Amino acid sequence: MGGSPMVDVVTAMMVITTMVAVVPFTCRAIINDHHPLAPVVLVPGAGGNQLEARLTAEYKATSWLCNRFYPIKKEEGGWFRLWFDIGVLLAPFTECFADRMTLYYNPELDDYKNAPGVETRVSEFGSTQSLLYLDPYLKYITTYMAPLVKSLQNLGYTDGQTLFGAPYDFRYGLAADGHPSNVGSTYLQNLKNLIEKASDSNNGNPIIIISHSLGGLFVLQLLNRNPPMWRQRYIKHFIALSAPWGGTVDEMLTFASGNALGVPLVNPLLVRNEQRSSESNLWLMPRKKQFPPEKPLVVTRNSTYSSYEISRFLEDIGFPEGVQPYETRILPLVEKLVAPGVPITCIIGSGVQTPESLYYRDEGFDKQPEIIYGDGDGTVNMASLLALEDEWKDEEFQRLKVVKLDGISHTNILKDEEAVAKITKEVFAISSSMFTSIISS
């Protein structure tokens, strides 16, 4: 998700997932024998993307340890696993990881780029293979979308034919009109091309997009940056899982003090600068419409900060370089959640303790705060999860359905048996409605 991709791996390492077939054989037979499946494209959340890197001669290691021993293993061409790699949990290598993950904002170019000498890539775009686990060598403790993919396969979906994956470099985000965002914009174009290809290879049938977490924000931008005729032609339905439409309070913890998400081996201060540098993390700051000005999100001895004081907050935590991109690139981008006119189903967790206010009793932000909790999915606040329902209640031509799953956390929505069954049944119902439309016409 949002604050840091480590949330996905931490949850994964706490839960051993059991694969289940959640749709009866009779439903599967009906789909396969009587009408075509609506193709599905999966768009992961932040931590669900596997990221590879390689180092050029321009790269300068922060220490001899990083230079000599990390990474331990390299593939052909010098590529190595950057995210997720188990080495990030080992304190001596955390600094190496953070240095290579850090982005740099260039005010003159008004865009983000990698650290000097670091090249990155995502693997297997178009396939779901890189979305199944955070690390394919640690399948049982880093399960990500494998249960959902297995369930869709039980419906008759096949990877690369009717089921597709769209991974991305989750550190990069998008910017408001008039501001370049090269990596994020390139991803949207690649996603658009994948959707068109998936539709064309399936008799022109429109697509069901299923996103998780941050992926939902990318998909909504994709829809609104393309004309209505394109949406009508290529998009059957958009299913958004755990989408942080209005940002999260947890993001302010990430920026203020770093966020190790409960992993005892990781010092949050070692990853704080890297987390602050992420363009997508800045995109997930609490949004004004979901967090009113009278609601203090961060409280210190000398000040309080609401969603209306994010710029001052960035200054006071010692990250003034974040103010310009936040005010010029992010605020105009999130000012309005535009309804795309595409049928949308939001499936969210609820009833899980979620950070709502942060209290710093000591001077500065180097120590973790006392946290006051509220409702949400453990990562995203309920007001953020329900933002579309609140803002689009008067949108006449926008079909919106919200499904709440009590007790389901932000990442367990992809693993819990009942949650996966609910998602799969929604896909089945949408495919069935497509068949009905074909018969009617």
Report on the structure:
The structure is a single chain. The chain is of the alpha/beta class and 441 residues long. It has a single domain (6-440), classed as Alpha/Beta hydrolase fold, catalytic domain (Rossmann fold, 3-Layer(aba) Sandwich). The protein has helices at 6-14, 25-34, 64-69, 91-101, 146-154, 182-200, 214-224, 228-234, 250-257, 268-277, 279-283, 310-316, 323-334, 382-385, 387-391, 417-440; strands spanning 40-43, 51-55, 80-83, 103-106, 111-114, 118-122, 163-165, 207-212, 235-241, 298-299, 304-305, 344-350, 354-359, 370-374, 400-406. The strands form four sheets. The chain has a six-stranded parallel beta sheet with strand order 7-1-8-9-12-15, with helices on both faces. A four-stranded mixed beta sheet has the order 11-10-13-14. Strands 3-2-6 form a three-stranded antiparallel beta sheet, covered by helices on one side. A hairpin with a 4-residue loop joins β4 and β5 (111-114). The two termini are 41 Å apart. The model is unreliable at 6-33 and 435-441 (pLDDT under 50).
